Structures are given as C-alpha cells and as structure tokens.
Amino acid sequence: MENNNVKTIRDFIEREKKSYASIESTVIPALHEAEGVYGWISPEAIEDISNYTGVSKAKIKGTATFYAMYKNKPMGRHLIQLCTNVVCMVMGSESLLSLLNERYELEPGGMTSDGRFSLVIMECIGACGTAPAMLVDADYYDNLNEKNIFEILDKYQ
Amino acid sequence: MITITIDGKKVEVEKDTTLLQIALAKDIDIPHLCWDDRIRPFGGCRLCVVEVEGYDRLLSACSTPPENGMVIYTNSEAVINARKAVLDMLLIHHPLDCPVCDKAGNCKLQDLAYKYGSTESAFKEEKKHAVSAESPFIELNPNRCILCGKCVRVCWEHQGVGAINLIDKGFNTKISPAFQEVLDCEFCGQCVDACPVGALGSKPFKYMSLAWFLEERDNICPYCSVGCTITLNVRERRIISAKGVKNKGVNNGDLCGRGRYGVDFVYAANRLTTPLIRENGMLRQSTWDEVMQYLSIHLRKIIKTKGPDSIGAIGSPRCTIEDNYMLQKFMRSVIGTNNIDSDRFGYAKIQQAVEMTFGLHTLPISLNSPLDKDVLLVLESDITSTHPIWGLKFIEAVQKGAKLIVMDPRETKLSKRSSKWLRIKPGTSQAILNGIMKAAIDKGLHLKNKRSREAGNLDALIQLLKAYTIQQVSDIAEICSREFTEVIDMFLKGERRLTAITIGPAENNKGLGTALAASNMVMLLGDGPQALQMPATYSNTYGMWQMGITPDYLPGYEKITDKPGKNIFKMLYEKGQISALFIIGEDPLITYPDLNKLEEVLGSLDLIIAQDIRLTKTAEKFAHIVLPAASWAEKEGTFINAAGIRQKVNKIVEPATDATPDWKIFRNLSRAMHHPIGMDDLSALKEKIHQIKLHIGDEKWNYVPVPYEEMDPPDDDYPLLMVSGNIMQHSGAFSVMSKSLSHVFADSFVQINEYDAEFFGLKDGDIVTIESKRGQAKTKVRISDEVSRGMVFVPLHLKDSRMSELYVAYEGFAAPIIAVKIRK
Ligand code: SF4
Ligand code: SF4
Ligand code: SF4
Ligand code: FES
C-alpha cells in the first residue's frame, strides 16, 4: 500500500543509484530527498530509504545524526536560522533570541507549539558588515532589530 | 614478498596485509580496540599507533599496509606516550563502575589502563548518562561505550544485520538501535563478543559471575551441523555463559544466538532424573535395576513370540556417534533386526538423491565453499536460520564480489543481501532447476566434461526438460520471464558456480525431487557434486548416518543388500508393522507429521521405550518405560559436522542425578539381557568406531529426471500454501527447553502477507485455526511482508502447537507443502 511519499523516495533511489559505485552511497542524497518529502528525517523516511537501499535503519539513522544539517527532529513550517557568532552577538542577536522566546516560546533547537517556526543557531554566514543576520527558510535578512524582525516573521505564517 | 623492519628485526611479509596483522603474527603486542579481522579496518580508536621512519606522525597499524623497506617501532617512547594520551581520553567519559560490570576481568580497557598506569583521566568532564535501549538478550550500557564502532561493523559487515549504530555525534553519541527504545534483532550476540569493554552484555548472563571466577571449557555446539566451538564459562561445575573465541573451531569465534544463548537447556526444569515406569496408566519413578529387568524380560518375550523384526528403534541426530553406534549395535546384534531409522523427513532425501545421482553414499559440504565462487544460487533455503554461521560465508562472498541469487517466496537475510531475488511460488525450486538446465541446453552450455556426457539416462533427462522452457517455468513459479532469463544468464555466466539447498525435517518446501533436480543440474553443467552444497541438519545428523542409523546401511555406509529393515514410514505410520519401539532423543508427537495417524500407531504398540534427557510429549503420553539420558554437556563423545569433520564433545558438568550416557544404557541393557556386546568402556567403543571402514561409494553419475509436481495443490477450499521451517532462534527439541531462547518466540505463530490478511479479515495477534485436509491447529497471526501472497509460513517445533497434525508423512518426490485455510 504505497503512498506518494514512498513512491517519490523509491523513484529517487532507483534513479540515483546508477550514479554511485555502491548502494550505500545513495543514502546521503536519499536523506536529502526524504527530508524534503517528510519535512524532517522521520522514522518513515528512514524506513523508506532502508527498504529501497537495503541499508539497515540503524546505519541510516547513524548517518543522519552524524551530519548536523539534516533535520533530525520534526521541523516547523518555517525554519529560522539566526547567527550568534561574535559580530552578530555584539550587534544584538542575543536579545533577539530572548524576544523570540518571549513572543513564541521558541528555544534554539525547538519548535513553536503551533508548528509554525523552528529555530536553530547558525554559524557565521559572512554578513558581519550588516549584522545581526538570519535566514528564514531560504530567504536572507540582515540589519535585524527588535522591531523589524517581527515584521519579517509576520510574512511567514 | 617485501621486507620491513619491526623493532629492529627484519621480516619478510606479504604485501596484502596490515602492520597490525604482521605484528600480531610475530607475537608483538600492539594494543588495539577497534580492529577485528572479520571487518574492514576502521582506524578509529588510535591505540594501535606505531612510529614509522620517514613519517612525522604516528600511523595506525591496523589500517596501514606494509611498504618495502619500512622501519617500524611499536614500543618507542612516542608510541607509549600516544597510547597513554588516547587512554586518558577514553577514560574521560568511561564510568569507573568495574565492580558491577560483568566484563571486569575480561575487559581490554581495564587491562590497558592497568598496563599503562592510568585509572582515571587527567581531564575532568561529565560522565555520560545516556538512556539505553531494551532487548531480551542484549544488555546495552551506552555509558561504558568507548565508541570504537566494532560492534556496529561486526553487526553490519559481518553479520549482515546492521541493527545498531553510533547514533548522534560528539558527547551525545551513543550505541543504539535506530529508534531508541528496543533492540529487536536476531540476537546472535556477536556484538557482545566484539565489544572490548562492558558496553554490551548478554542479559541471560547478567550478574551471574565475575570473570575472575570462571573457568573456560570448550565444547561443540549441540544445535546445527556447522559444529561451532563454543567456549563455556563454568563456575563450580555449572555452565554460566557461553562465548565464541577467535581462532577457535570451524567457526573461528563466530556464534549464532542458539549456540550462545541456548546451552541452558541442560538445566531445563523438565530434565529426567530417574527412570520411569508406567503403572496403572501413570508414569512413576523407578530405578535402573527395575527398568533393566523389566526390559530384559519383555524384550525377550517379544523376540520369542513375535520375532526380532517386531521391534524397532529411532536414533537421534543430537546424540553422539558413540551413542548411535551402540544403539544400532544393540538392535542389530542383541535384538537381531535392521529396523533402525531416524527422522526421515529431512536429510534422508539428500542422502537418497546423492546416491541415486552421483553414486555416492555421502556428500559432505565444505564450510568455505561459498568463498571462492563467483555466483551462488540459493533455492528456498533460509541458510542463515538453519546453519547461521555457514550462512555468514554467503554474506562474506557477496562482500568479496560474488553474485548471490536467491529464489524464495520468503524474505530472508540472504535475500536482502542478494544480487537478485525472485519470489517464486512455494515449492517450485525443482521447476526452476529444470528451467535452468533447459536454458543451458538451449545455449549449448551443458555437457561440459566427459562425466556429464557419459552419465546414464541423459536422453530421458533431455526429453523431460523439453517441457521446462523459460515461459513454462515462469508460469509455474509465478515469476516474470524476463527476470528469470536475467537470473539464468547471471548463473550460467558464472565460472565458479555454487548451488545450495537445505532440507531439514522442519522444512517442507523442498522434496526429494528438488535434491534430484539440483544434482542433475550440477552434473549436466559439468560442475559436479562439489558445486552442490546440501548440508546435514543437526549437530550430529551427519554422524548418525555414518553410524548406520538407517534400515539399509551398516556403520560406514555399508549397504545392506540382503535384508534391510523397516523405515519410519512403515514403523510409525502403518499399524501392525512392529510391536515395540525404542525412541532415542526424539519427540515424534511434536516433530513428526501426520499426528493423528502417528498417535494411532503409537497407541497400538505393546512396548514403547523413550530414552531422552527430558520427559517428552511422546513419553508422557505413550511410553511404558522412560530412561533418563545424560545431556550433551554431561558426557564425552564425538559429533560429525556437515563437512564430515569429527569433533570431540566434552563432559563439562556432572549428569543430572541418574542420567546416563545413551551408549552406556545400551551396554547395560545388553548385559541385562545376557548378550554383552563388548565395548565396555568409552575408549573401547571409540576404538571400534575408529576401525569402521568408510564406503563412500564409487562416484558414477546418473541423471534422474523427475517432473515437477505439487503434492497438495491449493484450491478454493484450501487456498493457501503452508510452508514450514525454522526460525533463527529455534530449531526444535533443545531450543524449546532453553529458558533464554524461549524468551523470544516461545509460542507458535503463522506469518501471513498483509493482502491475504485483509482478504481473510485477519488482524495481527488474532488467534486462528489453520486447517488442512488432515487436521487443524490453533495459532496466532503475525502479519508480515516477509511472506508473499498465497502462502503462510509457520515455524515448526515451537511449543504448544499441534501443527504437525496438518502435515502428511510423505515418501514421494514433490515438496510436501500443504494447502490450508485459515479462519478465526
Ligand atoms: S545481537 Fe547480533 S544482530 Fe543484534 S545487534 Fe548484536 S550483532 Fe547485531
Ligand atoms: S558498544 Fe562496545 S564495541 Fe560497540 S562501539 Fe561501544 S565500546 Fe565499541
Ligand atoms: S551456527 Fe550452528 S553450530 Fe554454530 S553456534 Fe549456531 S547453531 Fe551452533
Ligand atoms: S585498532 Fe587501529 S585504530 Fe583502533
């Protein structure tokens, strides 16, 4: 009883595996694909990849959790990535963090209860000249302050 | 060969190895935690570092190959300092809970810390407090883990499972199954032996004893015919635990779950401690004197009134060759009959096929046979369940690049690792083999040597095969003909081919016809009997046959031509053939087919003697006399494994009270009957066995063409095909006595595909009645995609099921699969 998610992942693996010397090597791109499909590396995602690569679930889970950039927890609809490296921190990203916490009860690594936002702390993206900076999903924002940050976030429902 | 210098000594070495292996072979101790010769080098623990001239950093010996002229120091100051530093790091997080750790005394980290003088790290950091996963067998203690990854790689690369991994990263890394809570794997315990520290342990052995108090005694595994060496940890003459030890035995330290966790059957609560005698319908305790006298009188009376051929015996593949030799000697010379047989539903078919086709009386397998092949064909055989450690060789072969073709409606560990897996209809292997032969003929790839051309019956075989075109066989086996063609090409292209089939008494999906077809195929292709691997089933199945526990062979496979005895089909399934029966180490009511018929015949006998280590169901219900036998660990003797290798079985503990080795019981009984047969002690008996000349037969090939048939085709009333077999943790008789093994899967169940389950309105866990034309049994439903549509799978020999009532005692060529229906 195959659903669309499963089919997407299966087709992806079938396509990709031709480009790699071993089936194990398809796990990394398949994780990216599954993350897109399920929103995060969910147990179903791991199950599907295991079924179509033959690599065991524990192996896949280990791989997924080894790399910081896979979403190993369920994610909100929008991902806020805020930089707290030295320059951004000096320019006030710490206080933005506490504001986010106040307004949305959002902790770094956490998700809002309504599933709207997830927040992660990001390393420097080279925007020091216009610090503090953040990414919301794939969109880039800088020169953040206590006011404009919420104006920006209001666009993401 | 190249030359390198280790610690000032010049040595000649192979290129294709590592510095660590060279050093170990030369008895130079390089500490290592993450290396294991069964898996690829990892280089993770950094304890094995050595100094190599010309390199300004230390190299890990386990992952560095030698180069000509290399100069290596394994014990320089820099090396020792580096090891100390690594240990210092390892001890940062490792809890110092050695006093409560089962590994203490046998722990590599402890040894190294002792040797290098550090017990605590110079770094002060938090210790770990990770939550560990649950499992019935494996005790995970992630806090003790040093993250060497050895267990992970042994489980995945060598064992072919991949149930555990190092999950997460940095400080949070912990050893765990994919999803936290439960470790549900095959419970082989290989990871436990691999772990250098106490992070993985065996639950059944937890807190049983500190390693210091244990004495190590080797024995041969009592379960399957691989014949692994198990190292038993014994304390005060009690078996505490079991493990595999590197470089020991045919298994080289590998063990499966049965061998590792199943040896506690010796202490089962239903062990017999005294002889029993039936009085007023009830069994009561007796003494050896009383039963011996009873037997001597009654047996002599039966011989006198009804003749020696009214007495029969069933030997056991779990008893030693000494036991079995004495049994047949007793039957043949004291009683005077050839009515001796054994469980004829399994290996007997292989014996028969081998004789009919190759003209051989025996065909041992070779345990390493998969390793030098380029294509392996496994037909409806779950080798990693029936012969687990041999099965690992197939996985190893795949890793070395061999192509593995699996034909099986069931998903097995090998199907998961195969290059090509076709889900054929249950029981159609024989048709598949015929199809491969037909394709070979069409391609002109047959008759590759003189023997194959000169073998008898060639024309008849070619005639038969005409009906087995790719399309016809694909229709029979319900597979896609394009895929079948692909498989045939893959197989026939191989230069070193191997075909493997197991036929155990619990497996009903292959028959004599399957074994014959496989034999025909290896002859026709010119590959010969060595290219066909059909292993014996239990620890001493092979030895039992060699000792003549069969109505038509004397010990040493000497064929009886004048007056063969009756086989079990006659003795147990035809009323009036015998009136007295010895049953040694078997429980026909549980393991033999056609229960209703069997009970009728057993109930009609005048005298049934059950000799066993426990009170069997058969004994409980039918035996007049029950004799307590010493178990496998309580006596000396010999097993012969599937490869024909004789291995010594050792007495590790004292027998349970009055239990006596089977061979001794027969010696005593022949004395009681005033017909001593010599061989008064074990060494005389061994000498006698030693002198047996083996008649393995003159290899002379002969094709035996047999059409594919279905024994019990499904129909509207009985729409499902019922396949039976073993599961990894159980193989009948002993394993159900083991407390630890009965922890997993003690109760019987039936596996059914989710489509069929939906169709018949069944849910997981439902109690259902399975019905065949012969009988019915109740069991529990397990929905699983391991089985395909149109079939169900039941593991035989689990407790409390009357599954065998459904089966038929069948002597023909087809696979004895039965059609069934299931209802709630
Ligand atoms: S017991 Fe065997 S299958 Fe289970 S985790 Fe350990 S090595 Fe893997
Ligand atoms: S559990 Fe043992 S073998 Fe596995 S990684 Fe940890 S220390 Fe190594
Ligand atoms: S493979 Fe066979 S002989 Fe080896 S441990 Fe397992 S059951 Fe025993
Ligand atoms: S044994 Fe060489 S790095 Fe671990």
Task: State the gist of this model.
With about 160 residues, chain A is an alpha+beta fold. In chain A, about 45% of the residues lie in helices and about 10% in strands. Chain A has seven helices and four strands, in the order H-H-H-H-E-H-H-E-E-E-H.
Give an overview of the whole structure:
The complex is a heterodimer of chains A (157) and B (824). Chain A is of the alpha+beta class and 157 residues long. Chain A is 45% helix and 11% strand. Chain A has helices spanning 4-16, 27-38, 43-53, 57-66, 86-90, 93-104, 148-154; strands spanning 78-83, 117-122, 134-136, 139-141. In chain A, helix 1 (4-16) runs antiparallel to helix 2 and helix 2 (27-38) packs antiparallel against helix 3 (43-53). The mean pLDDT of chain A is 90. In chain B, the strands form nine sheets. Chain B has a seven-stranded mixed sheet. Chain B has a six-stranded mixed β-barrel with strand order 29-33-30-32-31-34. In chain B, strand 25, helix 23 (617-622) and strand 26 form a beta-alpha-beta unit. The A-B interface holds A 1, 43, 46, 54-62, 65-66, 68 and B 152, 156, 161-169, 176-179, 416-417, 754. Bound molecules: iron/sulfur cluster (3 copies) and FE2/S2 (inorganic) cluster (FES).
